[in-house]
Specification:
- The chain is of the alpha/beta class.
- The chain has 2 domains: 230 residues, FAD/NAD(P)-binding domain (3-Layer(bba) Sandwich); 196 residues, no CATH class.
- It has 18 helices and 20 strands.
- The strands form 5 sheets. Strands 1, 2, 3, 4, 5, 6, 17 and 18 form an 8-stranded mixed β-sheet that branches.
- The longest helix has 21 residues.
């Protein structure tokens, strides 16, 4: 790239660099980070490997993909005008509508002019002498920037199972997270779905309506709960719009950024009748209510969790006609909510269809994929299409694919393989001028609510550097140690950390991802996280080293 010839006396604004800030990723995080930095007058560019904006909602085009957070609580809150203009059609919008929304945001704020599409970042190297980052693309292009920000998302690097013969299959095969932009015709075909996580559940319940035969290969069942979606009429949308401010305040005060708040009672503080009535109401309520509005001890007390799991198990038995199939769909290795809870619409009733078969891979494991289909230990199943709903290399996977080198040439992957450490899920030791929106050890829950806060905090930090003519920032060792221990402490009581899942960094399809990470995500509340971040900001970032 040619050097920018604009003259500035501020050391931060080094005009020999291509940009002040480069952002990787044009999803929800990257778009808002671009907007905020550009409004603050920085020279900024977004590098996006896709051909359009949207991130998760660009790549995940599979049948049935949709929100499991209420649409109106998921959208951006920063623009009153945007809130007034956009009408959501459903309480839980489908992927095409979500993508239209993000494209609308990009158009409204003229963001595309600062986004470089089809830009696959392969390496990023910190130059200690110049206090800048050198970024390399697969195309051979390189960029230099003072600050590097990743907006990669928690679940963005898909994984295929380690099954022999995938490339020999003569039919079509797809991963849910890399679904083609062109129409995929499944009507009247014999289809296999491998995986029953969130994307698998959404795909299965949708395609079962039209395929000739559907065979679901399940390694581990998940606890699913009803989505209870519904259209939003114009009058209801008006009421939602009138209450946006109160709703966003509620999200900021809830545990996970949702419109639901945890019940202050313990499970066994109430009578069995009251408990069942409460759970029945939750089961009939929308979205994450059953997960985020439950008794406060359900995810920390094994006895309470067992009672909740028993309630949901009986619901599965009521909804699935065949008792044997029902038992196959009930998890026995983890309790309700200790792994990601997929929200469904008629998922369990799908198995009542005559064209749907469930295969338990613990009983009949897959031996290989053949030219015609899938060979299990019992027989060969023939298919026209195989769909892999086999999840993501979560927590650190989206970073591992980029060859990132910090101080002394140290590799980020090697550093995190040794021990996952960050500061506020925003900074990493030994990697100056490197910032993450919602990085590892960050908040879970309703991501856009947390993203907006993260972006504002990062923007303020960069503004502080410019105002004080600073060219380098990294966390102190004490602040990193404090945060990492704090995260572990906040995670210690949660039953989530006693279970193998992507939330604890486990992925059997990725070498080295077979040990649980305690504290891969922050287990504290939104309020506790923001309180700490606010304090650091008020103390003028004493937790960081500047030069």
């Amino acid at each position: 790239m040619e050097a920018n010839l604009h003259v500035s006396n501020n050391k931060f604004e080094h005009m020999e660099f291509d940009y002040d800030v480069v952002i990787i990723g044009a999803g929800i995080s990257g778009l808002y980070q671009l907007y905020r930095l550009r409004e603050s007058g920085f020279r900024v560019c977004v590098l996006e490997r896709g051909t359009g904006v949207g991130g998760t909602w660009y790549w995940n085009r599979y049948p049935g993909a949709r929100f499991d957070s209420e649409s109106y609580s998921y959208g951006y809150s920063f623009s009153e005008e945007l809130l007034e203009e956009w009408n959501w059609s459903e309480h839980f919008a489908s992927q095409p509508e979500v993508l239209r929304y993000l494209e609308y945001v990009a158009q409204k704020f003229d963001l595309r002019k600062d986004i470089s599409f089809s830009s696959d970042v392969t390496a990023a190297t910190y130059d200690e002498d110049r206090s800048c980052w050198r970024i390399e693309l697969s195309s051979g292009l390189t960029y230099t920037t003072r600050i590097l920000i990743t907006a990669l998302g928690v679940l963005s690097e898909p994984t295929f199972p380690t099954i022999e013969g995938i490339d020999t299959f003569q039919g079509e095969y797809f991963h849910t997270a890399r679904w083609p932009k062109t129409q995929v015709r499944l009507e009247g075909k014999n289809v296999a779905v491998i995986g029953t996580g969130a994307s698998g559940v959404q795909t299965i319940q949708e395609i079962a309506k039209t395929v000739q035969n559907l065979t679901v290969f399940q390694r581990r069942p998940n606890w699913c709960a009803p989505l209870n979606n519904a259209p939003i009429a114009s009058e209801e949308m008006k009421k939602i719009r009138d209450n946006y401010n109160d709703m966003f305040i509620l999200c900021s005060e809830s545990q996970g950024g949702f419109i639901w708040t945890i019940d202050p009672r313990n499970t066994f503080e109430v009578t069995p009748e009251e408990r069942r009535d409460f759970w029945e109401r939750l089961y009939k309520s929308r979205g994450m209510s059953i997960y985020q509005g439950n008794f406060k001890d359900v995810l920390v007390d094994e006895r309470a969790n067992k009672a909740m799991s028993s309630f949901v198990a009986n619901k599965i038995r009521e909804r699935v006609n065949d008792p044997q199939t029902a038992e196959m769909l009930i998890p026995v290795d983890h309790g309700f909510g200790t792994r990601r809870v997929p929200l469904e619409t008629g998922y369990y009733e799908t198995y009542n269809r005559p064209n749907v078969e469930l295969v338990d891979l613990n009983q009949t494991p897959i031996q290989q994929i053949t030219k015609q289909g899938i060979l299990t230990s019992v027989r060969e199943h023939k298919f026209d299409v195989i769909i892999f709903a086999t999840g993501f290399d979560a927590i650190t996977g989206s970073f591992d694919r980029i060859n990132m080198s910090g101080i002394g040439g140290g590799k980020l992957k090697n550093q995190w393989d040794s021990e996952l450490e960050t500061f506020l899920a925003i900074q990493v030791p030994n990697f100056p001028n490197f910032l993450m929106v919602m990085g590892p050890q960050g908040l879970g829950g309703n991501h856009p609510r947390n993203i907006e806060y993260n972006v504002e905090w990062i923007t303020s930090l960069i503004e502080y550097m410019r105002s004080n003519d600073l060219t380098r920032v990294e966390p102190t060792s004490d602040s990193v140690d404090y945060w990492s221990q704090h995260v572990k402490e906040k995670s210690r009581t949660s039953l989530v950390n006693k279970v193998d899942s992507w939330m604890t960094g486990i992925n059997s399809n990725v070498p080295g991802k077979n040990t649980r990470i305690v504290g891969g995500r922050y287990g504290g509340s939104v309020q506790s996280y923001r309180s700490l971040c606010d304090r650091i900001q008020k103390e003028e970032y004493r937790a960081m080293n500047f030069s």
